[in-house]
Design goal:
This protein is an alpha/beta fold and about 250 residues long. It has one domain: 3-Layer(aba) Sandwich (Rossmann fold), CATH 3.40.50.720. The chain is about 40% helix and about 15% strand. The chain is built from eight helices and seven strands, in the order βαβαβαβαβαβαααβ. The protein has a seven-stranded parallel beta sheet, sandwiched between helices. Bound molecules: NADPH dihydro-nicotinamide-adenine-dinucleotide phosphate and 2-hydroxyethylsulfonic acid (8X3). The site of NADPH dihydro-nicotinamide-adenine-dinucleotide phosphate has 27 residues, from helix 1 and helix 6. 2-hydroxyethylsulfonic acid (8X3) binds next to loops.
Length: about 250
């Protein structure tokens, strides 16, 4: 009987690549997102309804999430890996210029949506001794100008992952926080409101991580023997590293 992974945010970027990676290794997948046309195309690509099942819902909507999970067919009803990947950043400006609605959207998606689906599935995940893989970010640990609420949501995801590990002690459930740096995906188009120039500039010459790189680490963590838990993986492209702290100086005459 193949194992089943439920991957949120499977309509593009990391989620799409993660779904493909798991199916390549013989798993079945439940692929979630809001764009039904992309989910249908992905299911087709993955081998059809025997291998993949689409769940179309907005992760910010608790009732929609609950209804989607309840509607899972029996063949996809036991989840062995929950990959909490759906998420977004909105805006790159400093706090003084930020739009409060964008902040709420990030919190509702990256934090509330992620904890909701985890809570709704937890009894079943314990029963199947599943792995939960949460997509955090380097922004969880390393602040940068314009990262404000996005970084805060990802710090939550990282800490929530560690907290889950503590609470799930003795259950056999494994929990991993994946924390990528610069990665090429629609993430940057979403963040900049569809600004293709900004997208091109960000990645130009940087040889960023690709969704397949992230899929590799998610699958690796999930494929290890049941007594091995990878707590966190921080991944950057070789081209990215840290800068010195900035120091604001008063004018001295
Ligand atoms: P993409 O924009 O390519 O994918 C984001 C996915 O999230 C889409 O499938 C989208 O599906 C889904 N999503 C967004 N909002 C909702 C919602 N309200 N309900 C349901 N699904 C939603 O970005 P990435 O693949 O790059 O990002 C995936 C995760 O990785 C995110 O959590 C991101 O924060 C994190 N990350 C990204 C990095 C990067 O540089 N790209 C680096 C570090 C972490 P749909 O629109 O169809 O609903
Ligand atoms: C996305 C990576 O560096 O843009 O989580 O915050 S970064």
């Amino acid at each position: 009987m193949p194992k089943t992974a439920l991957i949120t945010g499977a309509t593009s970027g990391f989620g799409d690549a993660i779904a493909r990676r798991f199916v390549k290794e013989g798993w079945n997948v439940v692929v979630a997102g809001r764009r039904a046309d992309r989910l249908d195309a992905l299911v087709k690509d993955l081998g059809g309804p025997q291998r993949a099942h689409p769940l179309c819902f907005d992760i910010r909507d608790e009732e929609a999430t609950r209804a989607a999970l309840q509607a899972l067919p029996d063949a996809f009803g036991t989840i062995d890996a929950l990959v909490n990947n759906a998420g977004l950043a909105l805006g790159t400006g400093p706090i003084q210029n930020c739009d409060l609605e964008e902040w709420k959207t990030m919190i509702d998606t990256n934090v509330t949506g992620l904890v909701t689906i985890t809570r709704l599935l937890i009894d079943q995940l314990i029963e199947s001794k599943a792995i939960i893989v949460n997509l955090a970010s380097i922004a969880a640990s390393w602040p940068y100008p314009g990262g404000n609420v996005y970084g805060g949501t990802k710090a939550f995801v990282r800490q929530f992952s560690l907290g889950l590990r503590s609470d799930l002690f003795g259950t056999g459930v494994r929990v991993t926080s994946i924390e990528p740096g610069l990665s090429e995906s629609e993430f940057t188009l979403v963040r900049t409101g569809g600004n293709k120039d900004a997208y091109d500039k960000l990645y130009a010459g940087a040889d960023p991580l690709q969704p397949e790189d992230i899929a590799e680490s998610v699958y690796w963590a999930a494929s290890l023997p049941p007594h091995v838990n990878i707590n966190a993986i921080e991944i950057m492209p070789v081209s990215q590293s840290w800068a010195p702290f900035q120091v604001h100086r008063k004018q001295v005459s």
